[in-house]
Automatic annotation (TrEMBL):
Pfam families named among the record's database cross-references: PGM_PMM_I, PGM_PMM_II, PGM_PMM_III, PGM_PMM_IV
Cofactor(s) it depends on: Mg(2+)
All residue ranges annotated as the Alpha-D-phosphohexomutase C-terminal domain in the record: 392-465
Gene3D superfamilies documented for this protein: Alpha-D-Glucose-1,6-Bisphosphate, subunit A, domain 3 (3.40.120.10), Alpha-D-phosphohexomutase, C-terminal domain (3.30.310.50)
Similarity field: Belongs to the phosphohexose mutase family.
CDD domains: PMM_PGM
UniProt KW keywords: Isomerase, Magnesium, Metal-binding, Phosphoprotein
InterPro entries assigned to the protein according to its UniProt record, in alphabetical order: A-D-PHexomutase_a/b/a-I, A-D-PHexomutase_a/b/a-I/II/III, A-D-PHexomutase_a/b/a-II, A-D-PHexomutase_a/b/a-III, A-D-PHexomutase_C, A-D-PHexomutase_C_sf, Alpha-D-phosphohexomutase_SF
NCBIfam families, per database record: PRK09542.1 (NF007088)
Native organism: Streptomyces dengpaensis
Domain Alpha-D-phosphohexomutase alpha/beta/alpha, first and last residues per copy: 7-132, 183-273, 280-387
Protein name, entry field: Phosphomannomutase/phosphoglucomutase
């Protein structure tokens, strides 16, 4: 195994191909390094459904226990279930998952007690350096009394905690989207929701979280299978929600929900099967959280729609704009005491959930919002979907800095245009804005554009793409 882990240790996690880039022996070293860097006396570990996850998780536990640390294994879980355990037990944690990446990949998401993230600037670089040194010269023996490794089931407690945060007792189907049956033409007693777990951890958590709620649940791909036989577990890609959209229309359902592989992100489609943008979900959930808390600060990254800060202000809140990335969102939430945060990538963060991201709690908010009024979901979210957006468009470039500079030069000095470089380059005018930012891992520039109407958005998008692609 190479002593250079630069391709394995990313900005926020460990991720690579098993066994080519890492294996159980390396996982054991990561376990030892994690507890040494964090100073942990006890930790909690969970894993997803990938074939390599149980073995990697056990190896990490051995490495930690060898340093005198007590380990609680919660077994199969979603990433936000691991965050729950880290928060509820006040323990550092490690989650073995590669989210939506193909089956041959696996990774580790690590956190300090209370689900505080471990990234490059908060311990991950030190963990990498320590493991690299041990690969070169060998790990020193520990004279500590080995810690214990015990099992604990947290699924019921996790579900109960989430349900304690959202009132779901009065949800009911919308009047305007009732489904007359052969037996009765009256309004149904349950919301009908199609859930696509993508053979990921949503298939493990949804049945327990949704149990007993007034829902008619139509499950899709709930079988845990880390080879992802039906589609990639990344609902951000349109091809991966085609089955969900079709099923929602076939079932005449009120909505559809899709989860990614480790079930920490949720994506929503309306009663027509049309996608609801994560920005609209951010604005919707922010409005509900502001009502619940009587105001407060809401964090949003700079790629979210203009609709988000507008909705926050309209509901008595204070919007705070940040860079893209969960470490920035969580840092700002801690600094400002924000009640909620949202990203264009469908990560949703809650103060009531240790500032961690949980797609399941966002999904419960959507169900409660829909079931608490009489209109269909398309009508409910229209209030938060006010502008025309391009979505994220990737362009492969030879020189990221040069192409970014070319875009900046093209717009500098234009009347009524402002430029900021909080994250890449954001250019804003009265009727439109766009952001171009480089990928940290690939030779790509990512463009997001938005405008007050579709024609203006298309014109802006095409103009910027012409500069980027030269």
């Amino acid at each position: 195994m190479t002593a250079d882990l630069s391709q394995l240790v990313k900005a926020y996690d460990v991720r690579g191909v098993v066994p080519d880039q890492w294996d159980e022996s390396l996982a054991e070293l990561f376990g030892s390094a994690f507890v040494q860097v964090t100073g942990a006396r006890a930790i909690v570990i969970g894993h997803d459904m990938r074939p390599s996850s149980p073995g990697l998780s056990r190896a990490f536990a051995r490495g930690a226990a060898a340093r005198g640390v007590d380990v609680t294994e919660i077994g199969l879980c979603s990433t936000d279930q691991l965050y729950y355990a880290s928060g509820a037990f006040a323990l550092p944690g490690a989650m073995f998952t590669a989210s939506h990446n193909p089956a041959q990949y696996n990774g580790i998401k690590m956190c300090r007690a209370g689900a505080a993230p471990v990234g490059q600037d908060t311990g991950l670089a030190d963990i990498r350096e320590l493991v690299e040194s041990w690969l070169t010269s060998g790990a020193p023996a520990s004279d500590a009394t080995p810690g214990t490794i015990t099992r604990r089931d947290t699924l019921d407690d996790y579900a109960a905690h989430l349900r304690s945060l959202v009132d779901l007792t009065s949800i009911r189907p919308p009047v305007s989207h009732h489904r007359p049956s052969k037996e009765s033409a009256s309004r149904p007693s349950h919301l009908k929701v199609v859930v696509d777990a993508g053979n990921g951890m949503g298939g493990h958590t949804v049945p327990t979280v949704f149990a007993g709620l007034p829902l008619d649940l139509v499950p899709m791909y709930f079988e845990l299978d880390g080879t992802f036989p039906n589609h990639e577990a990344n609902p951000l890609e349109p091809a991966n929600i085609v089955d969900l959209q079709k099923r929602v229309r076939e079932e005449d359902a009120d909505l559809g929900i899709a989860f990614d592989g480790d079930a920490d992100r949720c994506f929503v489609v309306d009663e027509h099967g049309d996608p609801v943008s994560p920005s609209a979900i951010t604005a919707l959930v922010a409005s509900r959280e502001l009502a619940k808390h009587g105001g407060g600060t809401v964090i949003h990254n700079l790629i979210t729609s203009w609709s988000v800060p507008e909705a926050v202000r309209e509901n008595g809140g204070t919007p705070v704009r940040t860079r893209v990335g969960h470490s920035f969102i969580k840092a700002e939430m801690a600094r400002t005491g924000a009640i909620f945060g949202g990203e264009h990538s469908a990560h949703y963060y809650f103060r009531d959930f240790w500032n961690a991201d949980t797609g399941m709690l966002a999904a419960l908010h959507v169900l409660a919002a829909l079931g608490g009024q009489d209109g269909p979901l398309s009508q409910l979210v229209a209030a938060y979907d006010r502008y025309a957006g391009s979505g994220e468009i990737n362009s492969t470039v030879d020189d990221q800095a040069a192409r970014l500079a070319a875009v900046k030069t093209a717009y500098e000095g234009r009347e009524g245009v402002s430029i900021d470089e909080l994250d890449g380059l954001t250019v804003t005018a009265q009727d439109w804005w766009f952001n171009v930012r480089p990928s940290n891992t690939e030779p790509l520039l990512r463009l997001n554009a938005e405008a007050r109407d579709e024609a203006t958005m298309a014109k802006t998008r095409d103009e910027v793409l012409a500069i980027i692609r030269g």
